[in-house]
Amino acid sequence: MNYLRMMRPSHWTKNIFVFAALMFGILGEESQLHGPWQDVLLAFFSAVGAFFCFSLASSAVYIFNDIIDRETDRLHPEKRSRPIAAGSVSVGSAAVMSVLCGVAALVCSSFLVRELAAVILAYIVLMIFYSLLLKRMMILDCITISIGFCLRAVAGAIVVGVFISPWLIICTFALCLFLGFGKRRSEIAQLKEDSESFRKTLGGYTPELLAHMLDVTSGLAVMCFLLYAMDDRTQRTFGTNNLVYTTPLVLYCIFRFSALIQKGKFSGPVQLILRDLPFQIGFVLWVLSCIVIIYANKLGITLGNVWAY
Q1: Do 28 and 140 belong to one domain?
Q2: Cβ-count burial of 43 within 10 angstroms (0-12 exposed, 13-18 middle, 19+ buried)?
Q3: Are 158 and 196 in a shared domain?
Q4: Do 142 and 173 have their domain in common?
């Protein structure tokens, strides 16, 4: 059980970005996924395989990071219970587990698509640099994490074989940067005067600075989403630009996340996403709205026709 906890399976939810390309590929009119059902099924299982490969890779990184941070984790009210920090698992055993997860991720991904293995290797190397150096550098720490999420989205596109709009990649980067700064804000709110002793970069961040960064990155994410929704390629792919009308739900989710994180009610984005029901409802409604808008247009039902009545 301690070895499973060490892999942080609850954090595998971050790897859902791998499925973005599959979802847009299936819904898009231009996608090759509109071919025989065997191709769609193969794409689905390929995306699932990429998800588990990235989950193994992220677990390898989590374990490696916990080994590096075992002393400072003991100062955190929640992280002190992690197996390595608590002493439930030895450093040597954890190191072996980390290597096994990393090797398994690379081997399995190479069987899917060789390019996927290259992306996962790039992710592992980037995160090792993050654990050893970059997480101690203010702002660069959050930028590095955001690049890691973009690699997940790119991996999903590679394994499924579909095109991802540059606007969508930039939107993913901005959104994840928003989540990264949100995590820093929650750590300061929870740890208060002990925040710098837990994470040195928190000494450079202030609540006011992070509030400003949250405002900028959330605004950038929303703007990139709007540009993506209004892009000509989006029109050709989905046959509609009406995704822009889901903006109120996007704003609700972002504003609720920002409000709860700045109050310190959750220790990080994963905890908020998994535990806050209003946020979950808002996100599910946004996904359903996107599906309804796209398929309503395919059936010849447009907002213009609805409003005409």
Answers
A1: yes
A2: buried
A3: no
A4: no
Which residue is it, tokens 């197996």? Answer: 83
Q: Please indicate, yes or no, whether residues 245 and 121 belong to a single structural domain of this protein.
A: no
Could you give the CA distance from residue 209 to residue 294 in angstroms, rounded to a whole number?
39
Q: Answer whether residue 186 shows pLDDT above 60.
A: yes
**8 Å CB contact between 134 and 65:** no
Contact of 145 with 176, CB cutoff 8 Å: yes
- pLDDT over 90 for what percent of the chain? 27
Number of domains in the chain: 2
Same domain for 215 and 136, yes or no, is no
For residues 145 and 218, membership in a common domain is answered with: no
Per-residue buried b or exposed e for 108-123, using 16+ beta carbons within 10 Å of the residue's own CB: bbbebbeebbebbbeb
Same structural domain, 116 and 170: no
Instruction: Give the pLDDT of residue 279.
Output: 93
Q: What is the rounded distance in angstroms from the CA atom of residue 163 to the CA atom of residue 168?
A: 10
What is the SS3 assignment for 29? Answer: coil
In the Cβ-directed half-sphere of 296, how many Cα atoms lie within 13 Å?
16
What rounded mean pLDDT belongs to the chain?
82
Range of the domain at 197: 166-309
Q: What is the pLDDT of residues 233-276, one digit of tens each?
A: 888 777 788 889 999 999 999 999 888 887 777 767 778 888 88
